[in-house]
Structure formats: structure tokens, C-alpha cells
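Why do we bother with holo predictions? Because pocket geometry can differ from the apo form. Keep that in mind while you read this record for heme C.
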Amino acid sequence: MKNILNYIMLLCTMYSVYASQPDWSKNIASTIYSKCTSCHHDGGIAPFSLMTYQQAISKKNAILHNVEDNHMPPYPANTSFREYAHQKNLSPQEKQSIIDWINNDVPEGDISIAPKPPEYTGNSIIKNPDFITSMSVYTSQAKSGGADEYKCFVLNGINENEQFISGIEVIPGNPEIVHHVLVYQDTSSVGDSLDALTPEPGYDGLGGVGSNTATLLGVYAPGTEPYFFPKGFGLRLQKNAKILLQVHYPAGSVDKQDQTTIRFLFNKDINVREVKISSLLDHQNIIDGPLIIPANQKKTFHQRFVSPINASIFAVLPHMHLIGKSTKIIGITPSKDTIKIIDIPEWDFHWQMAYTFKTLQKIPKGTVFYSEVQYDNTVDNPHNPSNPPKLVTLGEGTTDEMMLTFFYYTPYKAGDELISLENTGISTGIAETQLLQDYVLINNHIIQSENTEPI
Ligand code: HEC
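The structure, written out:
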């Protein structure tokens, strides 16, 4: 009797192992199509396609390795610290299924039930934009084995009335080489002057677009959707402002051409709530600065910023350069509640993103934001641009560092915390920096809005 019971239990175990064994058609293809192929398709930014079973299994060892150590898909935020809208990482179950599938010899399963591969046409999602602007055609100079290129371009803006942007879409001219794009507006002529220094279009810039008055409008990383604000909200686009782009072309893209386009939707409502994108955690509120990281040292810095208003936050976007190692931000409310903002345990300059909360996050007035940011200026850091390491200080160059976090925010109104950011089409994107001086403007603005708008 005991033997029979044992036998039945063994059968049950075998059955459940068998039933849970993932195969391509039933489980894996849908994960690869939703989490990998936005970059891994022919003409995409990744070096190979994962659109078919054959393509995926030919890379199985590399996939196993990169999925196990969370290198792929690139999504550096720790989602057990806080979850975000439009998360791009694998869920623990998806990750385990891929690992089990590869360890179990990549079964194909019943291909007739496999999902249809997605189509990547490069067509835009904003079909009827209110405004379109494009850069001039640029030919990359970034040679294989050399340095990446960070090029800034000056594009036309709007000349009539100012507008509120409700949607913004970056369409890379050449998706194989456009690694990230930052979109700024600027009413000064600094961009034009810098551009005029050389005959070819554009000028160099890694940290920003070289102008103190430029403000961030949006970010793009491969695989991200356009950024839409929820109904009633918008980002102010000033009349007569130029649109400045900073585009990252990786080493090896030499001689390839790009002409990136930006499409805007405007909010036509009479009462639009203005969203700001500003670096509230900035170099000026480093409490143990200045930002100096001597050669062969690891250093940790902290920032502190007190919110002078009740605010609603849409998203955050941390920024450092190449020797940045990690960043963690929390807010402590006046009633001593902790609001987890973001934790990036392994910073990667190449995968910078805006992390959008699932719903608007209320920040009570008086909330203190704290950041802890680590830098590794030793030879252990594979991203260190200098070998042997050199003294690193604050600046915009490739070998300088920055310590900023942009917040997408608006003054709080009752009920904001119920507004979902999941279904607006808001997505993550990569972004870089803004300049120090903006900090003062931002704080003036917050204080001003506090004085003028009853909250
Ligand atoms: C946002 C774009 C993007 C997404 C999404 C993405 N990849 Fe990648 N992947 C890249 C790029 C770019 C590279 C080459 C540079 C690098 O390794 O970082 C790459 C490299 C790889 C490599 C080779 C790494 C090596 O060791 O050389 C593997 C394997 C891989 N990806 C698998 C995946 C899998 C599996 C997924 C989904 C679970 C995925 N990727 C999602 C962009 C992406």
C-alpha cells in the first residue's frame, strides 16, 4: 500500500514538473516578444534578432547568462523597492521560465499555438501631431573601438503662441544607431552659436546641450513608447524656443546617417495643469560635497531637498555619468512616513530612464528627500573612462561627473493620488542632464506657484 502511495506521489511530482516545464510556443515567445524584441529585431538597436525560435536558441547560452544576472532586458531600477508603470524588466516568473527553458534544452512545444511575432514598422504612434520638427541629416563619426558620440542638434520650435505638450514622440531616423535622445527647449541662441562653429550639423555635448536656459521636455530610449501626460496636464512649450536634441551614437556607427524627428501633441483645453521637469536633487543640495572623486577611490555623497509645497510627482529620472555606481532616494514626510522613490543598485549610463509611478505620488509639503549616491573611480569599474583613473570633478564632459535627479511634478490637488499613469501611454525613456542654474529657477517657480495657487 505504502509503495503504491509512493508511486502515485512520484507520478504527481513528475506530472507537475512536466506541466510546469516551459516551452517556446506556450510561454517563452510571448515573454521574448514583450520584453526583448523591441530592440532585438532586424534594424533594431541590439546586435542580433530574437524574433524566431531558431534565432533565440542560437543565443541560448548568452541569454541564460544575461537574464540570470539581470543585464537583459536593460532596466536598472530595483522593482522590489518600488514598482513603476510600464516596467520593462522580467517578472520573477518570466525570468525563472527563461532559465528553466534553457536548462531544459529549449523545447519548442506546439508551434501552431505560438504567438505571432510583433511587427516593427518604425511608424509613429502619434498619427496626427500638432507639430513636427526634424534635425538635419547627420553622419556619425563614432568609429569601432573609439569613443561614443554625443551630438547636439538645433531644431525649429513653434513661433506663434506657447502651447502645452500633452504627448511627445521621438522617432529615431536610424533606429540601429540612435541609442538615446534627450529633447530640450531653449529660448537663447546658444545652440545656434555652438552649431555655427563647424560646417557639419550639430555640436558635441555629453552632459547637456550647453545652454544654461535649456529645459528638458522628454527622453527616448529604444523600445519606449511616446510620452503622454494624463488628461488635463501638459508641459509648457515656449514660443520662439528652439528644440535642442542630444543624441547618443555608439562607437561603431561611423558613416551611418540619422535624421531624428520629434512629434508633438498639444493640449487644447483652457485650464491645463502645468507639469515641470526639474532637477530638484541637484549639486547645490549635496550635503557632503563638493562632488570630487579622487583617482582610485570609491565615494558616497548625499543630497537633501525639502519640498516647499504639496506636490504630485509623475516620474523621476536620476542622472550620473560613467563612474556613477548606485543611487537611492527616499522621502520622509512631516508625519514620518517613508516614501520610496527609487533604488538603482547598478547604475548604467547607457540605460538611463525616466521611471513613472503607477499613480501620481503625493508629496506633502515639508517632505524631505534624501539621496545616497555612490561613485567608483577605481579600475574595478569597467565603465571608468580613464585608465589609470584620474581625479573626477563636477562637469559636463565624458570624464566629469554629475549627481542630479529630475522630477516630473505639478502642485498637488485633492484626488491626484488616484490618477493612474499606467494607461496614459507614459513610458520610460532615457535622459541626461540639466544645468545647475535651473535649480534656482525651479525653486523660484515652486515658491511662486505656492504663493499664487491655493493648494
Ligand atoms: C532596450 C533595448 C533592449 C532590450 C529590451 C533587450 N536588449 Fe538585449 N541587448 C541590447 C543591446 C543594445 C545589446 C548589446 C549591448 C549590450 O550588451 O549591452 C544587447 C545584448 C544582448 C545580449 C548579448 C550580451 C552579450 O553578452 O554580448 C543578449 C544575450 C541579450 N541582449 C538578450 C536579451 C534578452 C533575452 C532580452 C529580453 C529578456 C533583451 N536582450 C532585451 C538591447 C536590448
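The chain has a mean pLDDT of 87.
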